[in-house]
Amino acid sequence: MPSDPRAVLTRAAPEPDVTVAYGEHPDQIADLRRPAGSGPPRPLVVVVHGGFWRAEYDRRHTGPLASALAALGYPVAQLEYRRTGQPGGGWPGTLTDVLAGVSALPRLAEAALSDRIASTPPLLLGHSAGGHLALYAAAHAPGAVGGVLALAPVADLAEAYRLDLDAGAVAALLGGGPADVPERYATTDPRSLVPLRPRTVVMHGTLDQQVPVDLSRSYVTSARAKGADIRLIELPDCEHFGLIAPGSSAWPEVTAALRSLHEDH
């Protein structure tokens, strides 16, 4: 693993096999990767990237993760969406884009990748702000989601606003704090959307300096109390970026958790 964990954000990765559009905006697209080998069909994995919902971070930094998952035999879609700081991003465009993409991608991927995709709802793998968006999508469209692997998710927007994570990232997404736009938090904050119907694994490194692990702890505790099929995996030697870095000490944990979401059912 590189000495700077952020190096994964700029690491080169193979180009995707095809890019598809789920809407008319240039950022309403997804990069698709064919699964390697000749194994049985597996569920589509929709990767939802992080970056605190901001325009300066896009799907390309998940290329190493996506190509590594394809090498393991998964069909993969790297979902893009409009983000804060660009037209249509923030409330509600960022959120509606993710819902639209999750709904459309199984059909688009099946047409592009032929018979290597299982005819089951996709698995959502989201990191950081993308973890929040994956939890949001699973709450609002549970029938379209086969399971969620949320890596260091921003799973409590009200607390993230209070902590001022990434200098106002939540306020930029929703247009204010919980006292300013309470109805937006009610429909968007994972803490307000428990329990989820889809099976969920939350994974978080205890050394995370970008998204405190306590957000995941409180979210999972709340979800379990309301009957969700959810578990938290804490990694004591992991920071924020190791979760999306193939070759890191966290990577075997990530792939095992993803495998458990479809093999145990």
Automatic annotation (TrEMBL):
Top-level taxonomic group: Bacteria
- Provide this UniProt record's keywords sorted from A to Z: Hydrolase
Keyword set includes Transferase? no
Which residue intervals define the domain BD-FAE-like in the entry?
Answer: 31-218
In Gene Ontology terms, what is one molecular function of this protein? hydrolase activity
Keyword NADP on this protein?
no
- State what protein this is by name: Prolyl oligopeptidase family serine peptidase
